Structure formats: C-alpha cells, structure tokens
Amino acid sequence: MVSTFNLLARRAAVLDRWYAWRATRRQEPITGFVSPPEPRTIGSFARGRQLLAGKYLFAGSLLTEPDKTMWDLAPPDPAYAAALHGFAWLDDLAAVGDARARAAGQAWLWDWIDRFGRGRGPGWTPALTGRRLIRWINHAQFLLRGTEAEQGDAFFRALEQQTRFLSKRWHGAAPGLPRFEALTGLIYAGLSLEGRGELADPAITALARECATQIDAQGGLPTRNPEELLAVFTLLTWAAAALSDAGRSTPPDHLAAIERIAPTLRSLRHADGALARFHGGGRGIEGWLDHALAAAKVKTRQPDGLAMGYARLSAGRTSVIVDAAPPPRGAASGNAHASTLAFELTSGRRPLVVNCGSGASFGLEWRRAGRATPSHSALSLVGHSSARLAEPDRHTGQEALIKGPRHVPVVIGQTAEARRFEGGHDAYLRSHGLTHARKLDLTFDGRGLAGEDMLLALEPAEKRRFDKVLKAVPLKGVPFDIRFHLHPDVDATVDLGGAAISMALKSGEIWVFRHDGTHNLSLEAGVYLEGTRLKPRAAQQIVLTGYAMNYATRVRWSLSKAQETAIGVRDLSIDDPYADED
Questions:
Q1: Which of helix, strand or coil describes residue 487?
Q2: CA nearest 352: which of 447, 435, 257?
Q3: CA–CA distances in Å: residue 205 to residues 165, 169, 189, 216, 225
Q4: Is 73 helix (H, G, I), strand (E, B) or coil?
Q5: Mean pLDDT on 290-305
Q6: Contacts of 299 (CB under 8 A, 6+ apart)
Q7: Relative orientation angle of helices 226-245 and 252-267, to the nearest 10 degrees
Q8: DSSP assigned state of 466
Q9: Whole-model pTM?
Q10: Which contacts qualify for 69-75: CB closer than 8 Å, 24 or more apart?
Q11: Which DSSP helix (H) or strand (E) runs through 486?
C-alpha cells in the first residue's frame, strides 16, 4: 500500500516537473540585469580548492573523481544531489577567484543548463531553485567574464525560466527555511532582471507574511535550530538589501523580523563566535554570523531572559549556553533533539563542553543517536531520554519528538560571586515521578562553573510513583548518568587518583572537573558529529553515574581553570569547591 507521504511527495514532484516544463517552453526576450549584482555570499577557499582537485565533498559524502565533471557524478543520496543542484558551491569557487576557478564554474554552470535547463533533474524544487538563483545572480560577474554572447543569452534565458517557475511554485515549499529560500530567490531575481519586477511584488508580500508568522517574539523559529535561524536571518538581510538597491522600501514585518532575530543570534553565539549546537544545528560557517550581523546593522542586544528558549551566561572569556525550554513540537520537531537543560561551554576561542551534534549526514542510526539525551551534556535516566521519537510521520516521513517535557521553569540571576541559571523539567515525571533540576553558577571572572543536578519527587502522587519504580529496581535505585561531552581538540586525563579529570585545550589552558565524591566518575570514549566531515570524530566524555534512591538526590560538580604555579606547572589542589564539605 502506497503511503500518504509518498503520494504527497509524488504529487509535489509532478507539479514541480509540470511547471518547470511550462517555464522552460515559454519564449521570452533575452533580458539583462538592471544593474551589476554585488556578491553577498561567503565561501571557503579550502573547499574551493578541493573542488578544483576533483574532491566533491557534500552532505557528509566524498566522491573523488578528478577526471569527471560534477554532473557525471552518481549522488549517493538525495541530500548530496540537493547540494549539487543548489549551487552553494559557487561561493567556494568564488572564494578561490582565479582563472581556473572561474573556468570550472563556467563549465559546470553551462553544463547544468545543457543537461537540466529544460526542466529535468532533481534541482527543480522551489527551495533549490531559490538557492540556485541567488548564487547565479550573486556570482554573475565572476561567471560571465570572458564568455561569448551565446553563452550569456543561455545564462539569462535560464535565469528567466527559473524565475517564472518559482513565481508559480514558491508556495509548494515547506514553511520555514525552504519557503524563505524560495521567496528570497524570487525577490532577488525579480528585482535583478530587467522588466521582471512584477514577479517580485507577490513574493515581497508573502515574505513579510512569513516573517510575521514564523518568527516569534523572541526572534526565534519553531524548530529552535540556531544554524537554521542564521540561514533565515541571512536570507532576510539579502532580500532587504536587494529591495534597498532597487529603490524600494522593505515591509515593516520584514524589518521587524530582522530586528528581533539579530539580538537572539548574538545570545546564541559562543565566546569563539560560533553558534551553539542544538536541535540539529551546527556551529555555522566561519565568518557567516559576523557578516550577517554587520549587514543587518542592528545593534540591540537580547534583554535578560531566554533567546529562542536558550539561556546564556557569560563572564570573562567564557560562555555557557543552556537549552532552557521544551523541545519543538509537531512538524517543527522533525530534526529536534531531546536536549532540555543540556549546556555547552566555550573558553575563549576553544570549545570545551559540547553536544555531540546532528548525525543526519551519517545515516539513520547516527541521526537517531544524535537526537537522544545521552548525546548531550545533560542528565538522563539510564535507558530513557527526556523525549522520545515517534513513528515516521506519514505526510513528511520525519520522526517527531513526543512525550517530552511540558513544563520547564527557569530563573536567571546572580549571586554575590556568580551569574546563575536555575531550571527544571518534568520529562521523567510521568514515568518515574521525578523532576530534574539543574543549577549552574558561572563566576564573574569566567574561570569556574559550579553545577548541581537534582532528581526530586515532590508531590505525594509523585512519591508514590517513585516508590513503585523503586520496588521494581534491584537494590541500588534508579540509575542515572550525567554526561559532559568534550570537544575533540580537548585532551582529557584522569587525575588525582580518579577524583578529578584534567582537560588541556590547544590554547594551553587547563580545566579541571571535580565532583562531590558521592557518585562514580569515569572518562569514556565519545563522538563529535559534523556534517562537513566524512565520519564521526573521536572524542571523550566525562560521565558521572549514580542511583536515585530517595525523594531527593543531589549531585554537585565543578569545572574550573587550573591555577599556574611560579614554574608554570598546573596546581590541581586549590580552589576545590568541595574541600570543606562533609
């Protein structure tokens, strides 16, 4: 029996193909640009050199084919094909910028026109067409230099046809980033091509409407994915710049969305300038966030409190970002993680405590593993995540998060010595009668983070549920782990006879992990997942293991920079927060 998802996907594909066919059969006069377009995208010089060497790394897969053109490759999966047909790799070739890079870009672009320009291939979807139009227009001067008139005509004819297609099919893009890409591409093309301004007008109105409905009061998206928010923010700034260059005003809802998002992104940025990695998002392309914020010219900062559901503590050269809200729900949770109360810590330019990240580019099992609570720097009951994956949705094929926390109270303030975060969640209330509470204190000099995790049975009904669970558990109680995933560049070793873990950063800093001594401390193997890598990176993780046997279980731990002695040797024996504890 054919699933509803397959039927909907097939219907969308048929519509895309039909409108692509119509757009490419329509004969329009060859146009040019209203004015020479200015490139706004940022590429990677290193990735550009890889492409020129025939190393095609996209969506976590590497194909090494120096003797083949890009379009002769056999994509290993749809994500790889989408990366090819979206043409974001033009940013990387432009970053190289020499004659060889230009020749490669020209050959691959006009080869695409020859092979797929008549409405064929997987690139004719609204989101990919929008992404492709933006790149073609951004790099038009780079690509058209030294070409023949016939090639220029083919280029502008292909732009015209894709713009016509997008004007009919943008609404077929899913709400969120795909629709923002489609609409921005249509605005870009409509305003850039001579005599096509009428195609931009409906898209300008639709983009403003998406801003009002998709960007919430905190400047966030329903998916709560920081990297996705950066992508949307960048598209909105590009669209606003295109409107300004065309002498048009940007709709108020569009501008208001930019003004809401900018301070939120600042709150989601670590001390090293990278984004926090939560809910399927990565660190972001280096320099992209700074470039987008500078282009937006919005100087305001997020008021004290949460930004898209995240809390930020910063002091000295240290930043701590905490997932302090329930995970996304419904359609927005297709890539969401069970990460409530997980945190990341960065010291200066070096990440220390991280989350494992998204395993989507490494296959289904890695994708599922990356979404589980044990893949985050958080507490989890052994065998349980703070949210579960549902069966694949019949309309989208994605696995939503279900049975996650409903109530996540948060208080952000400070003590006489530190900035404080306090939060809790009720994800384990229904199954075990337990509430998880976490307190984090970051000292004002940024040299120490003191943490406290508690598992609490508070109300009579919750205590009865916990008692019932205890009866089914042999002797020791309900097992739990508190994990602290370390960045792969951190070199960690067990110290002080197993009472501490020392961590050396490449900057030369030494951080020390200690705990209150009432639970088992171990240093174990871990992984770090990045979509730009071919395979998961080996890493380490600190694990505190214990058992909840009473109505209140408390675990205290600390992370602190080691002091330096006169001869430069670290001293692990001082600043122990538990030295005077019973």
A1: coil
A2: 447
A3: 18, 15, 15, 18, 25
A4: coil
A5: 80
A6: none
A7: 140
A8: H
A9: 0.91
A10: 69/107, 69/108, 69/111, 70/108, 70/111, 71/108, 71/111, 71/112, 71/115, 71/116
A11: strand 478-486
